[in-house]
Description:
The protein is mainly alpha-helical. The protein has one domain (15-94). Helices cover 58% and strands 0% of the residues. The chain is built from 5 helices and no strands. The chain is elongated and about 55 Å long.
Amino acid sequence: MDLKKTNAPVNTVTYNKTLIEERTGNVYEAITIMAKRANQINSEIKKELTEKLEEFATYNDSLEEIFENKEQIEVSKYYEKLPKPHALAVQEWLDDKIYYRDTTKD
C-alpha cells in the first residue's frame, strides 16, 4: 500500500450519503464494509511502522540515546501526518477500489 499516492483528506470531510450507499443500497452495509477495510489499513500501517521503528531499537536505557535519535522522530512524524485509516477506507470506497461480496446471496 502506497500511502504517498493517496488523495484521502487529512481533515474531517462531510460526504454525500447517496454516494456512500450507492453501491450497496444500504448506508449501514457500506459503513460496515468501510470499517472492515479501515481495520485492515490500520493493521498494515501499524505493522509497517513497527518494522521501521525496530531498526532504531536499543536494548539499553541510555537517556542520551533516547533524545538523540532524530531519524526515529522523523519516521514517527511522517506517520502522524498521514490520513487516518478511516479516511483512506472512505476514499477507496468512493474510488471503487474495495472488493466486497455478500455471502448470503451466494
